[in-house]
Design goal:
Blueprint lengths: L15 E2 L2 E9 L3 E8 L5 E7 L7 H16 L8 E6 L5 E6 L3 E3 H8 L4 H20 L2 E2 L8 E4 L6 E4 L6 E2 L22 H4 L7 H17 L9 H10 L14 H10 L11 H11 L5 H6 L3 H10 L38 H26 L1
Antiparallel strand pairs: 1-2, 2-3, 3-4, 4-6, 5-6, 7-9, 8-11, 9-10
Helix pairs in contact: 3-5, 3-8, 3-10, 5-7, 6-11, 7-8
Length: 375
């Protein structure tokens, strides 16, 4: 049992939740605290997440927490975290127990190390593509995929991905309460699809395709695909801008991958890859590898490195003309509360709708930006 810190005692140490006793405090997050727990009989090691007291008073947060458990409980996939139990703590909060993971979040890796080698990107993102395809087969769309929700466990063969936090999921046959808080249904701004950014309701698996493509770009370049000084600017770039191609920024990545990522980041979802496995096939194919994401998700990292060293990437296909982009002006000085406005030389109804949607989100940004960017 972890010794109590006299300066910061924790009344939950030593208490039992479900079949597990809390033995140590591990970390604190925006939503709750994570503990190490042990099964009362088998001594199996688990993680116990408990909502902070103030968060537990919010119905949306509690519903999201419960949905995270109920959704992941259905899955049986090596790259999706296994959940075990859920319930009230008896002191006004709720707990969730899940498998104990050793490693780090992809977000922490990228913030600390920047761009990753191609072999690691292929292995990690192939596993992500396969895990999300499994979730989609249940009619579940993640909607908040980001590097901080991709946990990298250590193994002799390389990273083993565990997808976390299905609390923002959308079910194709929606029956439970709709989660309407900013940052839950809408996701994290850097990885939102254009349809999410504009507040559209017809969100489907191609929203997760968009997020995966954005994360591939970030693993290859070391920075987010759509950068901005505030939420409104990020959303405007997602809706009306295109990220820089990867290969000029990192010559270790082939030009063919630029087209794959562009295809995954199409503004019109009907023009994107129609599945995460199709995106995964495009990813590995851009390096000249065969077999799709299922093969390379399970291939040891060293074997992937050797394969990349022996394989020539294909020449990129002839470029097709890009669809016209609706211009939306960036805010001139958001710190003084000025709002982004649509370009005055266009009367496009579409542009007005896009600007209005972004403006609506912008009104929430001041209160929610910290949660969305760091939650």
């Amino acid at each position: 049992m972890q010794a109590q810190d006299p300066a910061d005692p924790d009344a939950r140490l030593g208490k039992q939740f479900g079949d597990y006793v809390v033995v140590a405090r591990v970390a604190d997050g925006a939503m709750g605290r994570v503990y190490e727990g042990r099964h009362v009989e088998t001594r199996e090691r688990v993680a116990v997440k408990i909502l902070h007291e103030d968060v537990a008073k919010d119905e949306v947060s509690v519903e999201r927490f419960k949905r995270e458990y109920e959704t992941a409980l259905e899955f049986d996939h090596p790259n999706i975290v296994e959940v075990l139990d859920f319930g009230p703590t008896g002191d006004g909060s709720f707990f969730l127990t899940m498998e104990y993971l050793l490693g780090q979040e992809l977000g922490g890796l990228l913030r600390g190390k920047g761009a990753q080698e191609p072999a690691r990107t292929v292995r990690v993102m192939s596993q992500v593509c396969e895990a999300l395809a499994h979730a989609h087969s249940y009619g579940v769309i993640h909607r908040d995929l980001k590097p901080d929700n991709i946990f990298l466990c250590e193994s002799d063969e390389g990273d083993v991905v565990k997808i976390l936090d299905f609390g923002s999921v959308k079910l194709q046959m929606e029956t439970g309460p709709k989660l309407t808080a900013f940052g839950t249904t809408l996701g994290s701004p850097y990885y939102m699809s254009p349809e999410q950014a504009m507040g559209k309701l017809d969100v489907d698996k191609r929203t997760d395709v968009f997020a995966i493509a954005a994360i591939i770009s970030e693993m290859a370049t070391g920075h987010v695909a759509f950068e901005g000084k505030n939420v409104a600017e990020i959303l405007m770039k997602i809706v009306s801008g295109d990220p820089e191609p990867i290969s000029p920024q990192n010559p270790r990545y082939p030009a063919a991958l630029d087209q794959v990522v562009q295809h995954g980041l199409e503004k019109d979802k009907t023009a994107r890859y129609d599945s995460t496995t199709a995106l995964g096939a495009g990813l590995v194919g851009a390096f000249g590898l065969e077999g799709g994401s299922a093969r390379w998700a399970d291939t040891p990292l060293d074997d992937t490195r050797r394969a990349l060293a022996q394989t020539a990437p294909p020449e990129p296909a002839p470029s097709l003309p890009l669809a016209p982009v609706v211009p939306v002006a960036a805010p001139s000085n958001s710190s003084r509360g000025e709002r982004p406005v649509a370009s005055s030389n266009s009367g496009s109804k579409t542009m007005v709708m896009v600007a209005a949607a972004i403006l609506g989100l912008g009104l929430l940004a001041a209160a929610a930006a910290a949660f969305v960017l760091f939650g």
